[in-house]
Design brief:
The chain is an alpha+beta fold. It is about 25% helix and about 50% strand. The chain has an eight-stranded antiparallel barrel. The termini are far apart. The relative contact order is 0.15.
C-alpha cells in the first residue's frame, strides 16, 4: 500500500513540475511570435507587417521592407536593430501594451522620437 501511495505522489509531483515549467516558459521566441502579424498605425493608418518569428525577420511598412534583428527582449519590451536605406543600423522599440483584463494588447512603437500605437489586424 505504501509503495502505491509513493508512486502516485511521484506521478503527481512530476505532473505538477511539468505544468509549472510549461506555464512559466514565456521565452523571447514566444514573445516574437506573439507580436508577428499585420498591424495598423494609429498615426496615419499605414499597414505594418511585423515578422520576427520566421527565418527572415523584417518589418514591412507600407510597401517598404526593412530587415530587423531582435536584440533584446525583456518583459513586454522588444528592442530591434533595423537596417536603414543608408546601410546604418537604427534602434527601434516595440512595447506590448495590455488591455485592462490582460487578454489582448496593442503595440507602442518608438523610433527617433516618433511614437505610434499599432493595432493588430491579423496574426501571422
Amino acid at each position: 500500500m505504501k509503495y502505491r501511495d509513493l508512486r502516485y505522489f511521484c506521478l503527481a509531483l512530476a505532473f505538477a513540475l511539468c505544468m509549472a515549467f510549461v506555464g512559466c516558459s514565456g521565452g523571447s521566441g514566444n514573445k516574437l511570435a506573439d507580436i508577428s502579424g499585420i498591424w495598423k498605425s494609429g498615426n496615419d493608418g499605414t499597414m505594418i507587417e511585423i515578422n520576427l518569428a520566421g527565418e527572415q525577420n523584417f518589418l514591412k511598412i507600407g510597401d517598404k521592407t526593412v530587415e530587423a534583428t531582435a536584440k533584446n527582449v525583456q518583459n513586454d519590451i522588444i528592442s530591434l536593430d533595423m537596417k536603414a536605406d543608408n546601410g546604418q543600423t537604427e534602434k527601434w522599440t516595440l512595447m506590448q501594451v495590455w488591455d485592462d483584463n490582460g487578454s489582448t494588447f496593442s503595440l507602442a512603437f518608438s523610433h527617433n522620437g516618433t511614437k505610434d500605437k499599432l493595432t493588430l489586424i491579423k496574426k501571422l
